Amino acid sequence: MMLFARSPRSANHLYLEARSLWTKVVNLNIYDSEDMLASVARLLQQARQQNPRHIPSLVLLSDVLMALGADGKALEVVDSLIALQPDNQTHTKKQILLHQLQASPTDDNREAVRDFVEARWTQTNDW
Questions:
Q1: SS3 category, 29
Q2: Can you give the residue ranges of every domain in the chain?
Q3: Burial of 95 (0-12, 13-18, 19+ CB in 10 A)
Q4: CB of 98 within 8 A of CB of 66?
Q5: 3-class SS at 80?
Q6: Domain 11-123, CATH 1.10.10.10 — does that match?
Q7: Per residue in 31-84, pLDDT tens?
Q8: From CA 44, how far away is CA 107, in angstroms rounded?
Q9: Which stretches of the chain are assigned E, i.e. beta strand?
Q10: Considering the entire predicted model, what is its pTM?
């Protein structure tokens, strides 16, 4: 028996929780930890279900999916972002990188995607 009904967490709350976890991943330099990345992705997918137009969740979700190598899923999220913010150059750059990777899945193109994600999260404050 539950004494208190638990209200669903908002997309923003889920995003903030995911961002906090992602910050730990970045600070610890453990981008290759699929378990950590998958945990972040799960939170962001929940946020996306709560609010499919929550830009911060979609941006972080696309980054995490790119880091996980889930290129098709990442491209789907990036396409959603471009539909919501067509003039955003970061979204366009992600889309180009992902299309290049799908057209030619070489180590160089995979590295370009990973470098892009790492640079965004270690060299910018765009989060």
A1: coil
A2: 11-123
A3: middle
A4: yes
A5: helix
A6: no
A7: 557 888 899 999 999 999 999 999 999 999 999 999 899 999 999 999 999 999
A8: 27
A9: none
A10: 0.84
